[in-house]
Amino acid sequence: MTTSRVTDRRSAREFVDAHIVPHADAWDLDGRVPEDLIRKASEAGLWAPFLPEQYGGAGMDMVTLGEVHEEVGRGCSSVRSLLTVHTMLSWTVQRWATPAQREQWGPALASGAALGAFCLSEPGAGSDTSGITTTATQTDRGWVINGTKKWTTGGQRADVFLVFARTASSIGAFLVPRDTPGVRVRPIEEILGTRASMLAEITFADVEVEREALLGPSGFTAGMVLTGTLDLGRYSVAAGSVGIVQGCLEASAAYAAKREVGGKPLRDLPLIQAKLSDMVTDARAARLLLAEAGRLKDEGDSATLMATWIAKYFASTAAARHASEAVQIHGANGFTPDYPVARFYRDAKVMEIIEGSNEIQRMTIAGQADREKP
Amino acid sequence: MSNTAQGQILDFVRGRFPQAELDAAQDIFALGFVNSLFAMELVMFVEKTFGVTIPNDELRIDNFRTADSMAELVDRLARVAA
Ligand SMILES: Cc1cc2nc3c(=O)[nH]c(=O)nc-3n(C[C@H](O)[C@H](O)[C@H](O)COP(=O)(O)OP(=O)(O)OC[C@H]3O[C@@H](n4cnc5c(N)ncnc54)[C@H](O)[C@@H]3O)c2cc1C
């Protein structure tokens, strides 16, 4: 049986309820997303539906993409994480690669035949991206890359890496196929949250790539490649965080209706109602912030960058807050893999660290303070 | 709100950095506030406002140094497209 295509929120919800929700806790325990799901996501056209039709995408707009990533995040943040980094790489190829590279990679990225991952962080540099030490040295034939990347989501499984490395003039983005000689992948296991997201540490030892492996412009706008890539990653993580809040809400509402204390369902207790009401409200607020950021992306409006920071900041902190309250509502049951909230709780914490930690979000958003007008 | 390309660009930069005093010939990079976030906002603003796509080889610092040089870039790209 083939899987139906995901084209909007409704079809995404059906896909997630059928193929992800029933298994997400098992994948979390197992520490990996199975090939079967990766194949089903390919059949559903989930990997890069925003790519143009000529490359096998569906030309999906950003608002809809946000809705789709929200639905996936509601089901499983590990799958959403794989989707996020694949999205970042695919978008960067679409935006900055040469026509020949787009021909080469586009269809494989759209179909999921090649999965992408994003390599920026290193053992010694995370928030401070200017501190990366991986280098790309220009030669007659192309580039030679040396260095170690850490925390690469999907790194265990990805076929192609988007590697940020220091060049003589700036930080450049390089497309590096996994099977290039000198690339070594070491799995990172037993992490706290998004446990099935197949993290890896990746070492590049004298890795030779062709001249065109460097994507985008050099000079002052070289940073645009990273800024744009991270912006889309942040948008996807914001969407995934909305999904976590929604997941917490659905699990908590169901549990509070069923569980009785003193002969009354939990949902009749005012203190539990307060938690549920805040989940409903924050889910809507976060979703609106996300939709606004998506609309601005679709319009090519530069205000999308700040709107995305704000959406991600609000949604990730809301996810962490409500996941904690969702465990609280579930009591001891919330500590077990029998309910999804323990996983939401661990996954939500990751959202406050990746694609710009909370602290970095707040520092950036504070820059908006003196120009913020309705 | 200004009608000229220079004026629109200056309005945008001033909106982002209300504390800076700017004119169309001033080197915005010399003011020290340009980071990669702003560079991207600037490029997106120019592309959207003037309906142009800036190819990779035009994404050079000299084209973005001043409101005047950005206006010249827009003019050149519009003529290529026409
Ligand atoms: C599950 C997971 C998946 C990830 N996936 C990827 C991936 O696919 N690709 C990738 O490249 N990276 C990935 N990362 C790495 C992630 O991007 C970094 O962890 C993140 O950028 C933070 O960097 P760091 O961990 O080095 O923390 P640090 O930068 O060392 O920061 C430590 C703490 O100090 C705070 N801090 C830092 N600077 C400041 C400041 N100036 N002012 C105030 N506080 C500050 C931070 O907010 C944080 O709380 C992943 C991480 C995790 C946990």
Question: Key terms for this structure?
Answer:
heterodimer, A: 374 residues, alpha+beta, Butyryl-Coa Dehydrogenase, subunit A, domain 1, Butyryl-CoA Dehydrogenase, subunit A, domain 2, 4-stranded mixed beta sheet, 4-stranded antiparallel beta sheet, B: 82 residues, mainly alpha, Non-ribosomal Peptide Synthetase Peptidyl Carrier Protein, Chain A, 4 helices, binds flavin-adenine dinucleotide, flavoprotein (chain A), flavin adenine dinucleotide binding (chain A), Acyl-CoA_Oxase/DH_mid-dom (chain A), AcylCo_DH/oxidase_C (chain A)
Give structural notes.
The complex is a heterodimer of chains A (374) and B (82). Chain A is α+β, with helices and mostly antiparallel strands and 374 residues long. Chain A has eleven helices and ten strands. Chain A has helices spanning 9-20, 24-30, 35-43, 62-75, 77-96, 99-111, 222-258, 270-298, 304-330, 341-351, 358-366; strands spanning 116-119, 135-138, 142-152, 160-166, 171-177, 183-187, 200-210, 214-215, 260-261, 264-265. A four-stranded mixed sheet of chain A has the order 1-4-5-8, covered by helices on one side. Chain A has a four-stranded antiparallel sheet with strand order 2-3-7-6, with no helix packed on it. Chain A has a two-stranded antiparallel sheet with strand order 9-10. The mean pLDDT of chain A is 96. With 82 residues, chain B is an all-alpha fold. Chain B has helices at 5-16, 36-50, 61-64, 67-81. Chain A binds chain B through residues 96, 216-217, 219-221, 223-224, 226-228, 231, 299-302, 304-305, 364, 370-371, and chain B through 15-16, 18-19, 29, 34-37, 39-45, 47-48, 56-57, 59-61, 64. Flavin-adenine dinucleotide binds at residues 85, 118-121, 126-128, 151-153, 191, 194, 199, 350, 353-354, 357, 359-360 of chain A.
